[in-house]
Task: inverse folding
């Protein structure tokens, strides 16, 4: 079962900070109105995501309370449309400004399976690639300074908003991470061109994912990194995704506390073998 969560400002005041699911696009439109949040629902359905959760955030500060609720939604990826990687709020406790992205990293449980995919202003708003890369670097550096040594950095990632035909590249990446086979590369026919032709040389050492469209019109997700420390095995979004799948398939809780006899060892080994066999044959 594939699922994803989007947040954004709806045209109605219905269900603020309360995730909702809908059977059809028409139901979502009637409930939340004509807005980017409902547009994201439609996009996710085109990509083939089965369960799409929408949460109405009328103010950016609604996210301060939602941090404690996001882990209750059965998804691997949370994609905010209403806050960008650079957005901050004034933390009354610390008496200082704090990035929403860092707040999510700090306050989500260490056991959380949710990754928050942030983006920034659309690349079309910039005069040229140099101006855009300067803005991307600024956004990345502000977060990196606060996450470089934090294990929780794997819970947040930054996607360059560089797709010409999509207002939110993080929506596209989140949907592809959900619907692409766990052992497959992230690529898709139909995303269209990019505003700027980004390359790995442009990204340098930055933890910024981006899409590159080849001559055959296939868009490839590249530089798929999160803000985990550079030495962490889950620095790669794809490795992090793979480990989440493995964790979901392998269930040995029933053997915890039982005597470590050969019989129990064989049961655990069989459970692990079965899980990996299922993973090998898993389509998404």
Result:
């Amino acid at each position: 079962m594939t699922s994803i969560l989007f947040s954004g400002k709806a045209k109605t005041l219905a269900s603020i900070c309360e995730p909702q699911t809908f059977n059809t696009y028409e139901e979502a439109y009637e409930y939340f109105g004509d807005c980017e949040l409902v547009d994201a629902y439609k996009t996710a359905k085109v990509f083939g995501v089965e369960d799409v959760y929408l949460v109405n955030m009328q103010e950016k500060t609604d996210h301060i309370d939602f941090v404690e609720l996001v882990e209750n939604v059965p998804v691997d990826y949370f994609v905010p449309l209403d806050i960008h990687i650079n957005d901050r709020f004034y933390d009354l406790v610390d008496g200082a400004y704090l990035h929403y992205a860092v707040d999510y990293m700090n306050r989500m449980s260490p056991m959380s399976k949710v990754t928050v995919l942030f983006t920034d202003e659309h690349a079309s708003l910039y005069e040229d690639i140099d101006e855009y890369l300067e803005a991307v670097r600024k956004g990345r550096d502000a977060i990196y300074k606060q996450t470089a040594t934090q294990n929780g950095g794997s819970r947040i990632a930054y996607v360059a908003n560089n797709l010409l035909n999509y207002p939110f590249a993080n929506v596209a990446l989140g949907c592809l991470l959900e619907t692409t086979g766990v052992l497959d590369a992230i690529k898709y026919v139909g995303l269209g061109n990019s505003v700027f032709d980004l390359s790995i040389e442009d990204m340098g050492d930055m933890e910024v994912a981006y899409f590159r469209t080849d001559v055959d019109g296939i868009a490839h997700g590249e530089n798929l990194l999160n803000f985990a420390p550079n030495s962490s095995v889950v620095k790669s979004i794809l490795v992090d995704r793979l480990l989440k799948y493995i964790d979901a398939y392998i269930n040995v809780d029933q053997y915890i506390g039982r005597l470590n006899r050969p019989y129990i060892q064989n049961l655990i080994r069989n459970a692990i073998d079965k899980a990996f066999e299922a993973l090998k044959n898993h389509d998404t």
